[in-house]
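Fig. S4 source data, part A: sequence.
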Amino acid sequence: MKQKTAQETRHISIIGLVLIMLLPLLPTKAGNVVDENLPLAVRFCQSQMLSHPDYKTIDFNTKLKWNYTHGLLMQAIFATYDFYHSDTLDCSALYHYAKGYYDATIDDNGNIYNYKKSDYSLDRVNAGKNLFRLYAETQDERYMTAMKTLRDQLKDHPRTSDGGFWHKKNYPYQMWLDGLYMGAPYYAQYAREFETNPAVSYADVVKQFLLVASHTYDERSGLYIHGWDEKRTQNWADPVTGKSRHVWGRALGWYTMALVDVLEILPDTVTGRNSMQSILKGIFDVLPDYQDKESGCWFQVTDYPDSTDNYLEMSSTAMFAYSIVKGVRLGYLDTSLLPIARKAYDGMVKEYIEVESDGKITLKNICAVAGLSSDRDGSYDYYVNKTDVRSNDPKGVGPFILLCIEWEKLEKTDLCDKELEHLRSENKELKNKVAELTTAITTISTENDSLQHKIDELEAIIATLTAKNDSLQNRIEELEADQKTEEGDSSTSFINRTSDSDFTAHLSDNGENLILYYTLSQNADITITLTSLNGVTKLQDFIPECTTGNHTQVLDTDMLPAGTYILQVKNDNKTITLKYIKK
């Protein structure tokens, strides 16, 4: 019989540990393995752990791998443990699962499983970011040896003539935006933690960001394209500039995440840090213009939002939203960007998050892989039509979990209050502007009918401002309702959204049940649906051929847990949406 290696033995034992660790999460009599009442980030981590009790299957693999996707997922799981683990919420299983991956891939001598320095791939560095905490917590020299191995790779990593890291050895003279996330945060943290004179390394880290920005900036879109070939010999590279052709969402997402993560690591006194922050701000001065107006998400090819075959892609959406929220929290970006991130997050949860029958979470619409090479020409057709789309890819799951944690961290600061103050101020300004324009219309109308065309222009402006004002008012009411909940307001809160006198509805609460009042101007079939914010239907009722007039419907909400719910009342061609906050 063939003897198992020490690495294989450790891998098998880790699988056994994980299976034992997950026993409390096995299906209950109700069939759920993930409790829907837990925070979304915790539920998503548990879902991933249950889907991959053997680390070999992570990222759709069949063999154990040391790779950036694995490191990203473990980083998200560690972050969830750090934020939520407490006496009242035991998240120790998350910690042991993430640590178990590293014990499965690093042997007794600190050798990394199937790692080859000679590949000189920045992708292999990213997974090392979690070793800093593991070494600090355990003082296990295996972790230190592995960290030194990765730092040694960066010391000898091949570079362009101006000093930029090649993305990989087999992609010579090429810098990709992706590579900044894969290597720079590790490089900066190693310098901070272990180097006696980190200034040289800090300068080199900053240099990587500024170089790739100078080589990939796209004047047409105001954003940054995927990659750059110094030699101008690749089939995807412009023969004059060396740039690839398009802004690929996830590549830009890797870059923005790298910027906020490295800015958090670098001391404030590092030269060039302000330039990095300016790049970050510049991206988010432009990026909202490319956000889908309905869902709040971003497209696979970011700078072509109006192309009919382009699709909304969730890894880039999660990365951009994460970068905004963390950037605002740490003071690198303005709070005015928070509604942009909130719209993206809400759109992902509403349209692209699914809760399975057993409670596990699924994130849809994630680009599997895209790159630049002889058979990947960087064309629009390549990114949109020749890449696979799948669910629960760790390149989307990891950033989404990290986004959830960043929202939670933000809510523990006063920045949410600042967002509310900003919205109120903007709302007041818009109201004053509307009043001024209305007065102007009245004055012009009495002076001369020939100025009717000017009135029409002003009325169009008023309509635009009024629509924006309504949107801001809704957000203010949501934030004020959330504040009342946090302050212990014992009343029940409602937000009604009706705009058509032919079909109206409102809510009241008699202390035991929720009562819906609605009025019809003509006979219609009525559907009433009450859902939680994560999309789970709690109540549903269908009333066929409802007659004209006033109607009352009693909804039994006595057994519902406290929380925020969405009530939709639909007739044959209209929908009214009401927000119900149960205390």
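Fig. S4 source data, part B ends here. Confidence is low (pLDDT under 50) at residues 1-6, 25-29, 485-499.
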